[in-house]
Design brief:
With 127 residues, the chain is α/β, with parallel strands linked by helices. It contains 4 helices and 6 strands. Strand 1 and strand 2 form a beta hairpin. Helix 2 runs parallel beside helix 3.
């Protein structure tokens, strides 16, 4: 589990899915560190199905920052990833999904936790 003054990372495994809950606040200055720490936790755990819940995380990245973090060369695990956020953030998470898919990552975004879990359980491609 990773923690900093700005944000907290909590993890648990349920039904074969590594659930990562991000809380606190993310800024342009902390997002890269948060992404690297989260990726390291995923790699260490070895799970292939990851659910990231960012509904209570404060702050969202702009288009440029989202693109840059997805394209950053830090070690990204090859996993199936579902990201759950609030309905008011749907535009930013859809851009995250599109950018991630264009970069060869299997990431899908949701505003419904049950739909995210169902997608992960139904994936045929196990990375």
């Amino acid at each position: 589990m990773g923690n900093s003054v700005e944000y907290q990372i909590t993890t648990s495994v349920n039904d074969g899915i590594l659930e990562v809950i991000l809380t606190g606040e993310v800024t342009k200055g902390t997002v890269e560190k948060l992404a690297i720490e989260t990726a390291a936790i995923v790699i260490e755990n070895g799970s292939k199905n990851i659910l990231v819940d960012i509904r209570t995380l404060k702050g969202r990245l702009g288009v440029f920052e989202t693109y840059a973090i997805v394209r950053n060369p830090y070690d990204k695990p090859k996993v199936n990833c579902a990201v759950v956020d609030l309905p008011e953030n749907v535009e930013s998470i859809r851009f995250l999904e599109t950018t991630s898919l264009n970069a060869g990552l299997l990431l899908k975004t949701f505003i419904d936790m049950d739909a995210a879990k169902a997608w992960l359980k139904g994936i045929k491609e196990k990375r």
